[in-house]
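User: Can you predict the 3D structure for this chain?
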Amino acid sequence: MNLLKEHSGLYTDHYQLSMAQGYLLSSKQHVKATFDYFFRKNPFKGAYVIFAGLSEIADYLENLRFSKVDCEYLESIGFEKKFTEYLESFTFKGNIYTPREGEVVFPVEPIIRVEGNLVETQLIETALLNYVNFSSLIATKAHRIRMVAGNRLLTDFGLRRAQAHGSILASKAAIIGGFNSTSNVFGAYAFGLESSGTQAHSWIQSFDDELSAFRAFAEIYPDKCYLLVDTYDTLRTGIPNAITIGLELEAKGHRLQGIRLDSGDLAYLSKRARKMLDEAGLHYVKISCSNQLDEYVIRSLLEQDAPIDFFGVGTRLITGQEDAALDGVYKLTESDGKPRMKISENLEKMILPGIKNVHRFYDEDGMMYADGVALEGETDLKIIYHPYQTYKHSSVENLKSVVLLEKIMENGKLLNKLPSPYEAAGYVKEVMSKLNPEHKRFEFPHIYKVGISKKVLDMRTSLINNIRSKML
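Assistant: Here is the predicted structure, written as structure tokens:
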């Protein structure tokens, strides 16, 4: 991690540097440009994404530098001295527009707008995509788990199964999505998160018998005692021994906090555990579960009335299963004062040109109705058109709306302090309460409307015709 901070300028793809050098050697380094970040497909067969990764992007941009060592390395792999001399004094001085971290966002619409010169807007592409795609994927997965878990406690247990240092950002993204805590102590330290954990099977195995292991742990942690009960035999020894410890703690003025199940039929075992604990008078002892959990497994457990208070979710959260990545892209939409776009035989691959913003419309009940992508400065939207099937359109006249993209960085500096992960999580809860249930369901969710204004539609059509005319 220190290596990355010391050489932040190298945190990019080779071709970004090749293009940046090309802009410099072509005397285009001062040309103004605008890029949009957006994604084309929702992950997890869902209908939305939770936007995360903003603070990482801001930190990266404010500290982006090329050291002398970086420049020497770039020269050693073929970059020219004139370019590395330019990089030695390089800092990002562009403007960034985004929604709030934790905002719910949808395909096609611009989520981040970057303004600056061609060199700086090009150089930051890879890092921006890396941070935002991954963090948003994990925050979205975490929120899906939160939806089924209700008010039960959720802890990220994923560090050991994550893709190396990706676990650090994933722990933060999980909190934004709605988790309460993480087992990842470094992530907790780095981002001000709550860390938590119980015990491992190895603790119990290291003693000659299970009861002695439990008793030793309870003596050390009398007020923070969670006991893992499935090392040998959950029902015959694990829970009975935990009950013994619970009663001993109670007699000393303490309370056993909970037990953890990490294998077997979690629904059956949790029901038996609850009954045994209650019969012993330990109604207050919580039951936690782990072992290959995700939103579907947790939903199934709760549909079976499993009396589980606390879920530890690891692999399937931290790796974003069943989707390995969010397909966010970063595309040039204006340069040198002219709208730009890539065209394709497939209309869905064509980007929306020009400098744009997103208007979110609400119905009479205050629920989200649709998002409209309009040119910056458009205020009187009455109709939005389907981005690809333009014969489809919706009226948004007289609906209340807000603009999503706000300037958060100017001249490379943050304008205001960004929210903490827990503050962002609070915003997720607020904004998702305004998204109708049909967009949140896991099976065949209703697609949320995202449309474009007539001016955006006309600009795209005009550019396509102009580009194709030059090909004749």
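The longest strand covers residues 32-39. The radius of gyration is 26 Å.
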